[in-house]
Amino acid sequence: MILSGIDQRMRAKLRRISGEVVEAPAQDPAAQLVTQKPAQYSGAMEEFFWENKERAIHKWLHYLPIYERHFAAFRNRPVKVLEIGVQNGGSARMWRDWFGPEAVIFGIDIDPDCAVANGEAAQIRIGSQADPEFLRATVAEMGGLDVVIDDGSHVMSHIHESFRTLFPLLSEGGVYLVEDLHTAYWSDFEGGYRRQSSFLETAKTMIDDMHCWYHGFGQQERASANALGGLHFYDSIVVIDKVAMTPPRRAITGSAHIKDETRKECEP
Question: For the domain 61-242, what is the CATH code?
Answer without folding.
Answer: 3.40.50.150
